[in-house]
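Fill in residues.
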């Protein structure tokens, strides 16, 4: 059954950045890739955090994780800004 109706491929108005833990067994890299394929072009990036499990994201404040999130957000900001400059 789809997680949302009519389906994940209906998500198309916000950029999505997937971040998955390398050793996450709850939402594995294979699951994340399936979700990425199902959503489609709204997924702008898929990053893997080395050594992270599903629970690692609860208190994720490490430099590598924070830099990954910041880089994803900055990429979206620069794309949005360039649209306004055209």
């Amino acid at each position: 059954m789809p997680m949302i109706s009519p389906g994940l491929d209906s998500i198309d108005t916000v950029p999505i950045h997937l971040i998955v833990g390398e050793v996450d067994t709850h939402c594995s890299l294979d699951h994340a890739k399936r979700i990425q394929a199902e959503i489609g072009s709204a997924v702008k990036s898929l990053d893997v955090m080395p050594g992270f499990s599903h629970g690692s994201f609860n208190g994720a404040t490490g430099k590598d994780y924070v830099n990954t999130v910041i880089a994803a957000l900055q990429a979206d900001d620069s794309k949005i800004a360039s649209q306004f400059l055209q």
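The longest strand covers residues 43-49.
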